Amino acid sequence: PAWAPPAAAEQIWNEFSKEESTDEATIQKSFIRHATKTLARSSYNMDQFAAYQATAHSVRDHLIDRWNATQHCHSVKDPKRVYYMSLEFLIGRTLDNALLNLNLKDHYKRAIGGIGFTIEDLVDEEVDAALGNGGLGRLAACFMDSLATLDYPAWGYGIRYEYGIFQQKLVDGYQTEYPDYWLTFGNPWEIQRLDVSYDVRFRGYVEKYVDVSGQTRYRWEGGEKVVAVANDYPIPGFQTKNCINIRLWSSKPKKEFDFASFNEGNYDKSVEEQKAAENITSVLYPNDNHMVGKVLRLKQQYFFVSATLQDIIRRFKKTSRPWSEFPQQVSIQLNDTHPTLSIVELQRILIDEEGLTWDEAWDIVTHTYSYTNHTVLPEALEKWAVPLISDLLPRHMMIIFELNLYFLQRVEKLFPGDRDRLRRMSVIEEGHPQYVRMAHLAAIGSHHVNGVAELHSELVKTTIFADFVEFFGKEKFVNVTNGVTPRRWLHQANPGLSTLISEKLGGTAWLKDLSQLDKIKAFADDVGFQNRFMDIKYKNKIRLAEYVKDVTGVTLSPDALFDVQCKRLHEYKRQHMNIFGVIHRYEKLKSMSKAELEKVVPRVVIFAGKAAPGYYTAKLIIKLITSVANVVNADPQTSEYLKLIFIPNYNVSVAEILIPASDLSQHISTAGTEASGTSNMKFVLNGGLILGTVDGANIEIGEEVGKDNIFFFGALTAEVEDIRHHQMYHNVAMDAKLQGVIKSIQSGRYGDSVIFEPLLGTLRSDYYLLSKDFTPYLEAMERVDAAFKNKSAWAKKCITAAASMGKFSSDRSIQDYAKRIWKITPVPTTEEFA
Ligand code: NTF
Q1: Cis (ω within 30 of 0) for the bond into 486?
Q2: How far apart are CA 264 and CA 270, in angstroms?
């Protein structure tokens, strides 16, 4: 039975558990208490990092008080909750974000200033929590901010990787990877919960038996067990008491030590098991939009799924409701197919451990789960070899075969004799070995499947899930366009612009209702406002130029057009088209007369992004960019007109400097390949314009900002297949300007060109349509240059575009999910719990 304070002590508990006040002296007292007691430092033994830690611990106290209040409130009210399961949360830094969300920034600024530190310096001491690859992981982090801000009863579940996405350094212009051990100096934002832990089984065998009522049943026995321990990461909402939680699991050995081996003198063997268990949550797999079928990755997935479901079920069981009510209490969102084994695991628990019939269990499962698809690229769709799953999770493999059989029997009933359809729809891909198609499993086990932008959701319905739409009906397949949190991506990253908007809109309410931004359109023609708006942009460009000077040594002029492409390196995102365009521009500059040069718009082209360590072509694109940069930046003839920068180690913190400083950003994926993109939204929200293809969320951004305020170019999705076919079978000549660029590379101007041959070789089949799109791309660039020359007209475009971004708040995405898919309502943490 749970402990409760004796009546006489209740008063004491209430009094002393209250959140601390936020006056200057109390903050200073809290800072010094943490510096001296938590960190064992003193006034003569302090440095900036210790000051950051003390501040973080002090802020954390506020988070925990609110977290406790929120949990108490939710356990009393017991509403339906949503569980957002994601193998990635790309959070970045927490201190500045927490201060702003709690509305304590100014308080801490003054209090910390009084102690002798500058809050901005302390904010810079924090290392990023980089537990994700790119857009998918950052989306999960934005969604947590919105869930907290909108008071939804929600939990995030993930893995506490000890190594986040690798750190990228450039050595001789090549990407080299270094481990991201982000926990070296501890992590003040997490609360380790050694009391919240679960066993997770792997391997073993399946036993068939007859139970007391004569039913044939199965149980999974034997094998090896590891322990999952919870680490809680509080997520405060903006201007609300509500503070939700991301629960991150770390793996620990079940038995501390193998004493038998130890006593035999076999020390190595005795620690082997321990190490193996800890390995599970060691490292984040660094692939974006690409599947690599490593056993350890499958172990991570099941480990995560098993611990999370045990935790959810424990919470559900507290209220002793019948199992049939599970879907009314629990909604589970699968962030891509990575947590799909959860569907099989819940079915297993219900039939093997809870004694439900198959049909009862399957009914509960399919009313609990929903699945977000984030890509239609074939190489990114997860499939796991059947022998691998059979070995690691024998009972799950049985259940997958069984549910697939029942599913295909239903397909056969609806489409008798259509054997090709059965082959296409099966969860099992036939071959040697067989594979489990995780997307099919996720779609069959979920009540809703959503894409992440309108075009993408249409593609989901007409390509990978076309047969499933015919079978289940189209209502199951919906769109929820992605969004970004305006708190981090405007209020925090661009305080100048946030302040200007608040001044014009009379307060900060717009940060919780981004549709209010619309009212800023009224100032688009106001020259005074244009000047203030562009002055903020200018200062952000100076801030970026200082950063670039610091990390690369190159000096940039903030008067130039800042042209940015920062995202994971991938052929489908076409950074190579961008660098080929830069080469074309450079060659053209070299051929110009003085008089011609004077009319040129000076440009700074900035790249940033990581390539998967095993992705050879993507790494070669980085080498080409850095090689061209070496030549261009050293050329006095063109230096006024063109600079080229590759910022190393792109991460959330770098994005916060880069995005507010961009005049133009490039989102130039081959049409139909970029599911949504989310940085495109951030750039426009911060007063930059997009040069982009008709792809992903670019399309919806274009609809909102208007065609005059976005630079579109390139082949359309519907044309891509025919163009590929035509290129393949009709000896189509390569675009002449692209040929010129290739000649320039092959001339050796950017160093020994043989190293680039494998990259240039990809242009032969040209799957991503660089040749087709190159001239339209360069023409769009000319439109950009022409537009940038008219300062006032450019400012008007930027203001109008930014003010049109109301739709792209992740608050809107979350409300969409909550109402249409999760069926949950807000539960604000009321005063009696605080
Ligand atoms: C990514 N998908 C897409 O490539 C982006 O377009 C999209 O914005 C984000 O998801 C968020 O929805 C993936 O990372 C994955 F894993 F699906 F390949």
Answers
A1: no
A2: 10
pLDDT mean across residues, the chain: 97
Give the nearest ligand 1 atom to 134 CA.
Answer: 14
Summarize the chain as % helix, strand, coil (round to 5).
Answer: 55, 15, 30
pLDDT of residue 278 exceeding 90, the answer is: no
**Beta-bridge partners for 217:** 209
Catalytic residue status for 573: yes
- Average pLDDT on 500-520 reads 98
Q: Report d(CA 226, CA 23) in Å as an integer.
A: 46
C-alpha dist (Å) from residue 807 to 505, 506, 735: 18, 21, 38
Which of the listed residues 291, 452, 480 should we mutate to test ligand 1's pocket, taking the one with most ligand atoms within 8 A of CB? 452
Q: Give the pLDDT confidence score for residue 662 in this predicted structure.
A: 98
Decide if 682 is catalytic. yes
CB 449 within 8 A of CB 465: yes
Write down the pLDDT at residue 274: 75
Whether residue 688 has pLDDT greater than 90: yes
- Ligand 1 and 382: CB distance under 6 A: no
| Low-confidence winner among 7-11, 185-189, 224-228, 309-313 (lowest mean pLDDT) | 7-11
**What average pLDDT does range 241-254 have in this prediction?**
97
| Domains of the chain as residue ranges with CATH | 17-77+94-127 (no CATH), 78-93+128-481+820-833 (3.40.50.2000), 556-807 (3.40.50.2000)
User: Is the CB–ligand 1 distance for residue 374 below 6 Å?
Assistant: yes
Question: How many helices (H) and strands (E) are present in the chain, helices listed first?
Answer: 34, 24
Ligand 1 proximity of 331 Cβ (cutoff 6 Å): no
142 ligand 1 Cβ < 6 A: no
Which is catalytic among the residues 485, 673, 678, 829?
678
Which residue's CA lies nearest to atom 10 of ligand 1? 136
Give the pLDDT confidence of 335-354 residue by residue, as tens digits. 999 999 999 999 999 999 99
Q: How far is Cα 90 from Cα 513, in angstroms, rounded to an integer? A: 24
Catalytic residue among 160, 448, 532, 573: 573
Measure the CA–CA gap between 341 and 403, rounded to whole angstroms: 13
Which position among 74, 568, 576, 643 bears the catalytic label? 568
Q: Check if 336 has its Cβ closer than 6 Å to any atom of ligand 1.
A: yes
Catalytic: 419? no
pLDDT(652) > 70: yes
- The arithmetic mean of pLDDT across residues 482-507, rounded, is 98
Q: What is residue 14's predicted lDDT score, i.e. its pLDDT?
A: 87
298 Cβ contact list (under 8 Å, min separation 6): 384, 388, 389, 392
pLDDT of residue 273: 74
Q: What spacing in Å lies between the alpha carbon of 379 and ligand 1's midpoint?
A: 13
Centre of ligand 1 to C-alpha 819, Å, is 23
CB 380 near ligand 1, within 6 Å = yes
Helix (H) / strand (E) containing 207: strand 205-210
